[in-house]
């Protein structure tokens, strides 16, 4: 429509279209800010730190929410019983675990764990936390480096007897945002030639994801040196330091995950848990 002065006039229909476009744009911005705009890394670190530095203790009985979520699969109790924890300290420069048995702050797996170091003991149906070998070592490792713990690796999913590793949250200098870094030391009694990797994820208390893969095929697209599990895995002590970027498209909220590895014969060799707030 053209006015008497020669200018194009806005019709009601065009006003309506512009209003709809503006409303949709506002809705998208609102959804992004509300659900997908993560706080800066230092804020995320502080948020997760406030949930409790000792994630292993949370699973072992101090956090009913975490425990109730992760104890879903009772059948995983019949797994293997490797009883090795971390062997030493961590070198940030080359990302390797260092042998450090002489460090007074590190408790050997064969030593008795002091009750004060391991945390309060539980009785009855709960697992006795002081009996979890390797936990004091990983506690000292986290404390010495002032790391924020968001996960743990045990030898079993139910009533574990040994802590094999830990998961921390770090700022991701390469891709922005944050990433997790997993450390674990796993001692195998025989060569690992195949098995399954299983994972369950909950988002704000609701089931989000549940899947499994053949462990020797799940990272075929990666170079062998970049894989989490490069088969065959030789028997003896196997150490891992693995970074994982947290995608920025994940909505804000609390993510609880459980992942476990079984051999071809169904024997459980490791079980990990994480509790991450975005």
From TrEMBL:
UniProt entry tagged with the keyword Membrane: yes
Biased composition (Basic and acidic residues): 66-87, 95-104
UniProt-listed InterPro entries: Ig_E-set (IPR014756), ML_dom (IPR003172)
SUPFAM superfamilies: E set domains (SSF81296)
Keyword terms of this UniProt record: Membrane, Transmembrane, Transmembrane helix
Region (Disordered): 66-128
Residue ranges of the TM segments: 15-35
Lineage: superkingdom: Eukaryota
Keyword Membrane included in the entry's annotation: yes
Biased composition (Acidic residues): 105-117
Residue ranges of every copy of the MD-2-related lipid-recognition domain listed in the record: 154-276
Designated name of the protein: MD-2-related lipid-recognition domain-containing protein
Organism of derivation: Pomacea canaliculata
């Amino acid at each position: 429509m053209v006015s008497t002065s020669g200018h194009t006039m806005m019709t009601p229909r065009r006003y309506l279209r512009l209003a709809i476009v503006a409303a949709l744009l506002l809705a998208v911005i609102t959804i992004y800010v509300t659900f997908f705009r993560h706080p800066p890394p230092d804020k995320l670190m502080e948020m997760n730190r406030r949930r409790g530095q000792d994630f292993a203790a949370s699973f072992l009985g101090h956090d009913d929410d975490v425990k109730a979520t992760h104890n879903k699969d009772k059948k995983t109790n019949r797994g293997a019983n490797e009883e090795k924890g971390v062997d030493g300290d961590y070198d940030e420069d080359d990302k390797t675990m260092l042998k450090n048995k002489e460090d007074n702050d590190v408790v050997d797996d064969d030593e008795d764990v002091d009750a004060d170091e391991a945390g309060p003991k539980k009785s009855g149906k709960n697992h006795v936390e002081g009996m979890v070998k390797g936990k004091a070592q990983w506690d000292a490792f986290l404390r010495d480096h002032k790391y924020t713990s968001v996960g743990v690796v045990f030898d079993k999913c139910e009533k574990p007897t040994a802590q094999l590793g830990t998961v921390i949250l770090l700022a991701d200098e390469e891709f922005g945002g944050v990433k997790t870094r997993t450390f674990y030391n796993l001692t195998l009694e025989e060569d690992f030639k195949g098995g399954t990797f299983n994972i369950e994820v909950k988002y704000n208390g609701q089931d989000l994801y549940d899947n499994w893969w053949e462990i020797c095929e799940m990272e075929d697209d990666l170079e062998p040196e970049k894989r989490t599990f490069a088969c065959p895995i030789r028997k003896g002590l196997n150490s891992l330091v693995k970074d994982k970027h947290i995608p920025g498209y994940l909505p804000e909220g609390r993510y609880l995950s459980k992942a476990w590895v079984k051999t071809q014969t169904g024997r459980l060799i490791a079980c990990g848990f994480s509790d991450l707030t975005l």
